[in-house]
Amino acid sequence: MKLKSIPTKKSDHYFFLFYAFYFLITQFIGFSYTASVRIENEGGLPLIAVIHGVFGGLWYALFGVQCLLITGKKVKWHMILGPSGIPIVIGVFLTGIYAVFRVNTPEEEIPFEIMSSEIVLFIMGLIYATLGFVNRKKAHAHKRYFLMSMIMLSPAGIARFWELTGIAPSEVIYFVLFLFIIPILSILAYDLLAYRRVFKATVVSLIAYALSLYPGSLLGQWVVDYIRPLFL
User: Fold this and answer.
1) What is the mean pLDDT of residues 145-160?
2) Does pTM top 0.85 for this prediction?
């Protein structure tokens, strides 16, 4: 028996648009701030950092535009524009991995633990984006997986935004809470409040994130162990 599809509620527009603008604003301000500081101190930015920034900017802009198109009921344009996200997120992933190993300046060398965690975030971001594209004909799963991808790929920009505003948490646990736990739980809370149910994509996202904290960190350490010598 074919399951009856669940109609999308209008509140979805506001929920996902909120996150779209949140990511756009924090990423733009955060990375603009650190870019200006590096240009002032170093006289410029590494080419790979510029390329990664372009891909990242396109990724967040695309998410925002896609949310606006759905809100405006421009479904045809949403579907036409969708495939452009594939090369963009791949670009974010590849340039991000390279940047983790190459772009850090001598006085800002990335500790091993942070390096491996950043690798895991890029991998998780790509996995969620892939799930979002695979489920593009299932609206509820599609948008939740893509939002999870944004959450995984956004910490660097948000942390820089906090640094600029002077409200950066002093403990790592607070970073994890505000960057990941609260946004992820907000999806769960939204499901319950708006739909009186929890979508499968939300459950899968929660489990995948939980697994990324330990088994995923081991994967990140393995990747760093294998790749880091190539950049020394």
Assistant:
1) 91
2) yes
